[in-house]
Amino acid sequence: MINSKKKLRNYxxxxxxxxxxxxxGYFKCIKNRLVTTPQSSTYRIWLYVKNLRYAEYNKNNSIxxxxxxxxxxxxxxxxxxxxxxxxxxxxxxxxxxDPGSFxxxxxxxxxxxxxxxxxxxxxxxxxxxxxxxIGAKSNGCPVIGNHVMIGAGAKILGGVHIGNxxxxxxxxxxxxxxxxxxxxxxxxxxxxKFKENEDSSxxxxx
Length: 206
What we know:
The chain is α/β, with parallel strands linked by helices. It has 5 helices and 14 strands. 35% of the residues lie in helices and 17% in strands. The protein is globular.
């Protein structure tokens, strides 16, 4: 939960590692956006992630979470602005993600429909591709661990628990719990194999 400036900076720092070409210094950012065309779209993804973090920070310090006061009123106004920015960016990117759903180090590859239920909880260093749906069923919402990669078109539905270092293959449909270090494929998803010597320090950037 992002409820302090220190945590906000920590989340943004970890997120920015995955978007180095568009989250660096102001002039380098402008150069990369102008010179390399694909980075322009990456910049919109980075803006979405950044606004997602600010929206969570402002929400957790607004009158919705704290007693009324000048400080909470300020955060409430900021929250309204950040939610408006997220709606605008959502129409551009196709992302529908509620603030507070993801831990730090979120990496999103490419524009495209990504729908995450507001009650879903995803851990740190998640990697998500277009076409992903993380949705609720009558038995609840997914709870997903750290260092999970969710392939394009994958669906995770209901009150399932997914462990750490799990890879969900493209177009897989997960409706049952998945243990740590598993690679799952298919409809419904089944365990293909388990990873060996998983290195949690591996990081990619776009």
